[in-house]
Amino acid sequence: MEDLKANCVGENGSVIGFDRTFNVGPCFITPTTYKNKAVWHSESNEHPLMLGPTFLHWDGEFETYHTFISHLKRELQSEDIVVGSDAEKALTKALQLEFPSATHLLCTIHMKDNITRYLSEKVGCSMRDRTEIISFIFGEAGIAWADDSATSEFREDRLDDYFIKYPTFQRYYQKHIADKLKRHVQLPLQKGVIDTL
Predict the structure, then answer these.
(1) 19 within 8 A of 107, measured Cβ to Cβ
(2) Residue 52: Cβ-neighbour burial (10 angstroms; 0-12, 13-18, 19+)
(3) Beta-carbon-side half-sphere exposure of residue 163 (alpha carbons within 13 Å)
(4) What are the UniProt keywords, alphabetically (predicted)?
(5) Looking at 23-27, 48-52, 119-123, 171-175, which range is the least confident one?
(6) Which residue, 48, 60, 76, 99, has most beta carbons within 10 Å?
(7) Residue 119 to residue 105: CA distance in whole angstroms
């Protein structure tokens, strides 16, 4: 816990990642991860990813996550942190309740996977269109990298042809993606909280 605190609290602290496992039996495992800023990996020249406090639990309910996250808050004794997770509702609700002033990042890998799965399974979108849509959102010149709202709107306009072709995707994007992308990916990039997706 002291190592987590030393590496994650304060300005330039490491992101504390939360990611619940699935399909490992009836018990869920939610590990925390962070980068140890005191160590460099010799081959990658980056700080290594470390395993932090790990939570074993039997359900994915808000109250269950809240118990774990409120304990972490008591131990960290600070809200000056950056947290990262997927968009699991119970987990994000507990994080927002216990760390309301923390920057909360959403995992773009999970976002890409969710969008790709929706386009494939619910919309029937071709592989070519899925690839281009993901590129328009997360690619180097994608919406996620927009440095202001005008640029974001301009880049979002590139999706218009796909919104016409796949109207259910437009509703999905507007209801489930646009706001989360802006608040939990674009704004942290703009503020310099993170510098890569």
Answers:
(1) yes
(2) buried
(3) 11
(4) DNA recombination, DNA-binding, Transposition
(5) 23-27
(6) 99
(7) 23
- Token code pair at residue 98: 């216990």
The tally of CA atoms less than 13 A away on the side-chain side of residue 133 is: 29
Strand pairing report for 103-106 and 15-18: unpaired
Query: For residue 184, what is the DSSP state?
Result: I
Q: Please tell me the distance from the alpha carbon of residue 16 to that of residue 85, in angstroms, as a whole number.
A: 9
Q: Which residue has the tokens 């919406």?
A: 143
CA 143 – CA 133 distance, rounded (Å): 10
Hey, CA dihedral for 73, 79, 81, 84, is it positive or negative? positive
Q: Model's pTM, two decimal places?
A: 0.84
Terminus-to-terminus CA distance in the chain, angstroms? Answer: 27
Q: Name the nearest CA neighbour of 13 among 40, 31, 34, 39.
A: 34
pLDDT in tens, 160-172: 999 999 999 999 9
The one-letter amino acid code at 127 reads: M
